[in-house]
Automatic annotation (TrEMBL):
It comes from the Bacteria. GO terms for molecular function: oxidoreductase activity, acting on the CH-OH group of donors, NAD or NADP as acceptor. Belongs to the short-chain dehydrogenases/reductases (SDR) family. This is Oxidoreductase. Keywords: Oxidoreductase. It comes from Pontibacillus marinus BH030004 = DSM 16465. Residues 7-187 form the Ketoreductase domain. InterPro entries: KR_dom, NAD(P)-bd_dom_sf, SDR_fam.
């Protein structure tokens, strides 16, 4: 397995859930981590705890992934501090599940902005650097909902299918360069993600589903570590992880 010592990883959405766990796991493997999200205090707490537990360097950069300038600045500051960008984890996302008939058009727009434009701005900001370095690894966090559509997930799924399409396109376009791409498709993971849902019908459906087995954020972080620690010529393009329902 390749060592991450001295490598630099940017993780968007590192202030909670899967992104936080990915940052912790990459740091444990020796990567310097750049923590990006809007909630700066949570990023600073995470940076402190990583510094207590590892010897890697951390950097906190308050970032709104929907803002192109923020994303460009995220990569620029990372390069200025660490001189290379080896890994970008496009993880930030929102899942505002709703029925189309309930017409939550502002939430549709928000999901497109964060889940699709955020990932695009990440690619835009990092790709020139990775191509110039002729090495790098982009991890895009899609979802099982990027492989199938559920009632209430039409728009969320549309954004996650888009993320997967971008991953697939990058794999084809970049296969003769040193830039690798991995699309991660988690099933249900226990995080803050569903807490932002406002559609009352969906909220009561979630109440009914209480007791179903979910994954932990760590389960997804380990698959990221697997992908980024393979030998340089191994391009792990897709990882899908679901929980068993065995109790
Ligand atoms: P959380 O709600 O715990 O984390 C979401 C993260 O995204 C937060 O750190 C949040 O940070 C960040 N974020 C949201 N909007 C923005 C923004 N505009 N700019 C920057 N950061 C933003 O959820 P998860 O950890 O579960 O979600 C992480 C990813 O995993 C998402 O892409 C999600 O779609 C995907 N996923 C999750 C699954 C699950 O069951 N949990 C299943 C499949 C995929 P802040 O608010 O501080 O900006």
């Amino acid at each position: 397995m390749a060592n991450l010592k001295g490598k630099t990883a940017i993780i968007t959405g590192a202030s909670s859930g899967i992104g936080q766990s990915i940052a912790e796991h990459l740091a444990q493997e020796g990567a310097n981590v750049v923590l990006a999200a809007r909630r700066k205090e949570r990023l600073e707490e995470l940076a402190k705890s990583i510094q207590n537990e590892t010897s890697v360097q951390t950097k906190v950069i308050e970032t709104d992934v929907t803002n192109q300038k923020d994303m460009e600045n995220l990569v620029k500051e990372t390069k200025e501090t660490f001189s290379s960008v080896d890994i970008l984890v496009n993880n930030a996302g929102v899942m505002l599940l709703s029925f189309l008939k309930n017409d939550k058009v502002e939430e549709w727009e928000k999901m497109v902005d964060v889940n699709v434009k955020g990932v695009l701005f990440g690619i835009h900001s990092v790709l020139p650097t990775m191509l110039e370095q002729d090495t790098g690894h982009v991890i895009n966090v899609s979802s099982v909902a990027g492989h199938e559509v559920f009632p209430t997930s039409s728009v969320y799924s549309a954004t996650k299918y888009a993320v997967r399409a971008l991953s697939m396109g990058m794999e084809k376009e970049l296969s003769k360069t040193g830039v690798r791409v991995t699309n991660i498709s988690p099933g249900a993971v226990s995080t803050e993600l569903p807490e932002h849902i406002t559609d009352e019908e969906v909220i009561s459906m979630f109440e009914d589903r209480k007791g179903r087995v979910t994954l932990e954020a760590d389960d997804i972080a380990r698959s990221v570590v697997y992908a980024v620690t393979q030998p340089e010529y191994v391009n792990v393009n897709e990882v899908m992880v679901r929980p068993l329902q065995k109790k």
